[in-house]
Amino acid sequence: MITAVICAAGKGERAGYSENKILRELNGMPVLSYSLSAFAQCGEIEEILVACREEDEKKILPLLRPYPAARAVRGGDFRTESVYFALNEAKGEIVLVHDAARPFVTKEVIENCIQSVKKYGSGVCAVPTVDTVVIANDRNIQSVPARQNVFSVQTPQGFYKDQLLQAFERAYEENREREFTDESGIYARYIAPPRLCDGDRNNKKLTYSEDFAPCERVGFGVDTHAFYGEGEGTPLINFITLGGVRIPSEKILKAHSDGDVLVHALMDALLSAAGLRDIGYYFPDTEPKYKGAFSMELLREVLRLIGKQGFSPKNVSISVLAETPRLSPYIADMKKSLSEALGLSKNAIGIAAGTNEKLGYVGEKKGITCYATVLLKNS
Ligand code: CTP
Ligand code: MG
User: N or C: which end of the chain has fewer CB within 10 A?
Assistant: First the structure.
């Protein structure tokens, strides 16, 4: 039987979030859940012990529920202690220790580790370094190890439990338990040189907030507004508003707000990318305060809502279908207006405008439709 120990009992101080970094969402899923899912896919692993701090238990326990093999164990004040507590509860003959902060671990990497333990008695996932590594003393280079001998060590790291536990006990007996940064160091000191096995370059540890940057979310939004028809009591204005820019137009868009169909599509795309509800939910047109509302102000509110989810826009791509008015002379102004509102450079904003070749409601000049796609990044 094999036990996986997932270390999740840190504070994530270097990442600087208000909560433990392993609870942060990456593309809609908490960091910890990635490792849980990868280990749960390996049939031989019958027990998954997740070391967690008491403060995080309320948030971690629901994440374990989908995995019957998983349960929480008490974490320690430093990583080695968290592993030591878990080892004392592990039932497996083999244990694999893994950092929850390495969400990109794969089933293949875990299986390499297991095979290495079975064949060589240990398996420490590692990748050859791409950088030259030097040993320095007081900023002076003392030696340069041959690069083919230098590896970056990752997790999982697998061992026979009895041997690993014995190594930990010796470290505690000698009061050296705080000296080691991982199991390979402890095993190397007290048992034998651990065997390296193939890790994966993608199996990175998320340490600083910028390590969370790969988290990107796409969103899509559409909106259509009708023009007033003949004899429908057109308001006495001679412009429409698109992207916060007033564009002279004989035909006027019907709307509860300023009818900025472009910004409405954009707001829905932003909200959708962040997994939130749509603009109708946040700004219902039954509420008088949104009558005549300036859509650019609502956009600011949408940016605040997605900011609360930890996101900000990275780029936006918008397509407007309008038979009238001609929009091309106003694209530059619209880009400028959106770049200011979104805090993006102009080259992160694409706006295309076209007619519908006289086809359908757009072609018959009955209305305007706008499509927006956005990419969000972790802010
Ligand atoms: N860890 C743990 N118990 C501790 C400290 C760390 O289980 N007492 C876990 C972390 O949750 C993380 C892994 O060990 O998954 C690797 O540690 P690290 O990247 O240092 O995470 P943190 O200790 O949370 O971050 P920091 O050092 O920046 O506070
Ligand atoms: Mg730490």
Answer: N
